[in-house]
Amino acid sequence: MPRLFTTVIAGLLALPTGAFALSPLTSANEALPQDALIIDIRAPEDFAAGHIPGAVNAPYGKFRGPAENPGRVPDAASLEETLESIGAETDKSVIVVHEGKNATDFGAAARVYWTLKSVGFSDLSVLNGGYTAWAETGAAPETGAVTPEVSDIDLTFSDDWMMTTQGVEDVVAGTSEAVLLDARPLDFFEGRQKHDAAEKAGTLSGALNFVHSAWFPGDSPVIEPSETKLTEIRDIAAAEGDKPLVSFCNTGHWAATNWFVASELAGIDNVKLYPESMVGWTLLDKAVTNGG
Fold this sequence. Notes:
It holds the Pfam family Rhodanese. The chain is α/β, with parallel strands linked by helices and about 290 residues long. The chain contains nine helices and nine strands.
């Protein structure tokens, strides 16, 4: 059943504790739940210059791999340290706040959302349009650094929403089945362009192209999937029965947007993200093809 829905609440006053579970997307015009942990993933200097009152800062890079393979999932110990430092607890509601510059920027929030879901957080949301949209409401920000009360959590990374390189290799070899969905613009898919960290251009054999920016109207940074596009992605999944839908790109950033929409908004079961994507794949000298 589709999960694309919004909660309409007037005003910017905080809601009482435990009022309702979060929707995958929170409008900048909605009141933010009083008990939610607001994780701002912007750079520390941007956070200090202005942030949503009560927010804590955990820059996006803390949820990513090294420069040579940015899509690699950080180890559980590193994630625990990051999340404990901001007082995160798996039973808390969490709202992820990115900058809100453009469609590409949304991928950061989607990737953090996916990471948090994969380590046991269940009540999650992305602030649609990010900090930029919130600031445009005229709400007053806080400034300066924040020192949260630390937490103590024990994380285990679930593979329910992840496809490993070995899993992708099995799909490409034909020993297992999945729908491979390339979230990158056409020049990447057809092999005319590559990420700087990738060893070669191209895509995965048998992949379909579904560009991540298709969920955004025009140049808007606010994600608003049309019913036409939601139907299209549901039809792709339905045509393949129970096969997993595997979203990938260069580094699992753009692909996180496709994963978010397919899994969290379109309500499709068995959607997975290949976090290392084409950079990780080509670093291992795996075969590529030109799409199209």
